[in-house]
Amino acid sequence: MPNPLQRFDVGPRLSEMAIHNGVAYLAGQVPEDGSQDIRGQTRQVLAMVDALLARAGSDKTRILMAQIFLADLADFPGMNEAWDAWVPAAHTPPRATVQAALAKPEWRIEIVVTAAAG
Description:
- This protein is of the alpha+beta class.
- It has 2 helices and 6 strands; from the N terminus they run βββαβαββ.
- The protein has one domain: CATH 3.30.1330.40.
- Strands 1-2-3-6-4-5 form a 6-stranded mixed sheet, covered by helices on one side.
- Helix 1 runs parallel beside helix 2.
- It is globular and about 45 Å long.
C-alpha cells in the first residue's frame, strides 16, 4: 500500500508542509520579523525550516533541494553568510538562488525546501 499523503498546518490557501512517499515538501518559508537585515531574516527562515523538518522526522542533512528567493541580489553575500553558518559540511544540498518580487515589501528572503522524510 502506498504511503498516504500527509499535510501539516493546513490553511485555507496552503499547507506548511506535505509528506508523500518519504519526501517532505515545505511551503516557502518567510521571516516573521521583517525589520531584521538579511542575515537575521535568513536565520529566522532557516530556524523555521529546521522546525518543519524535525516534524517530518528529518533534518538539514537530508535536504534534497533548496530554492532561495531574494528581493534584492545585493543581499546575496549576507544570505550566504547565514546559510554557510547553518548548512553542515559535506551535506550541502543542490540549491538555486534567484531574485524575485516577494509578497510583502519587508520580506527580503523566502526559502523552499524539499527533503527526505522520516
